[in-house]
Amino acid sequence: MDRISVMRPWLGAEEIEAVTEVIASGWIAQGPRVAEFERQFSQAQGASHGVATSSCTTALHLALVVAGVRPGDDVVLPSFSFIATANAATYVGARPVFADVDPTTGNITADTVEAVLTPATTAVIAVDQGGVPVDLQPLREMCDRRSLVLVEDAACGAGSTYAGTPVGAGADVTAWSFHPRKLLTTGEGGMITTCNPEWASRARRLREHSMDISAADRHSAVLAAKESYTEVGFNYRMTDLQAALGLVQLGRLPEMVRRRRSLAEDYRTVLASIPDLRCVVDPPYGTSNFQSFWVEVLPGFPVDRDELLAWLAADGISARRGIMAAHLEPAYEHHSGVVAPLPVTERLTDSTLILPMYHTMTAEELDRVLDSLVTAAGAPGRHATRPSTANGVRP
Ligand SMILES: *Cc1c(COP(=O)(O)O)cnc(C)c1O
Fold it and tell me: Which CATH code fits 13-250?
């Protein structure tokens, strides 16, 4: 029985050709392809500037630096996110302060943020969790009213829309991921998009040791000009190999989104008959790319989340625990950033799982996952004999 993965990147001959061309050109580090990828990606997202980076984690770090977040500041963000969101605030010496999330979308709201604001708060990081667009406008108004910087962590969001436009366009600065777990991939990679020209040019320098002349420009001259280092920077560069991959992948993005939305519809059609499994859906104000197709295992379901994961694994299906809660990890467990209880975060992180979904998923593979879920739904109840999960094999 072949194993069904939770996610697989969609790569083909065009990617191989694009990367091969870069190798043949003799210029593989950050150069013309990175510049072209920045231009095309930022244009696709409705932003005037794009600064490519080595990952979304480094993009978030740079975003907070250029936004002026400083040691001692508080940055409000969801605990219900990949831990990199909270780490970015920690990198600049700020305190991540955790806001709870909306139970339907898994995203922070203006209300959950307001509940945890402190006098030291200078920025908010809104996440489009799993590709579900965050309701940005109320956050935008709240941040404007209080002069807070609004950063969007759109790591999962390429191809999702908010009020008819690509997500990310309404924040002051947005960070993207091109990790293979997301839709559009460059292996590793990220980008900042912003309409603020000063922030973009500072981020562009900072990702390259804060050199006032880019390495690409210096190397294109026979006699390189003497560069100077304007502040303490980083090496957060993307390579032209990655950007060449990204350019092909960007062209595939609309098709990837269509495919995932169609798979989500197929899942929902069958899962609608199982009332105690709640599927992620589009919010009223936008569309998701379904980067993560998650379900919540409600109390009426015969087995709990971990048992359902083991049940699927016994059928050769690799699902994943849902979104993590950063405040429960050892890295943040004794941290002072929990200023109010996070009941929705804690419930969702315990009760959700991410089902397999990838571009090349076949009808047979989808049926296998659905059959396994439907059978689990008919299993003896939680209070009857529980299936053994110790070795991942069900009785
Ligand atoms: C994946 C992810 C990141 C980190 O992206 P990298 O490119 O791997 O650094 C950050 N935030 C969220 C919400 C993510 O899902």
Answer: 3.40.640.10
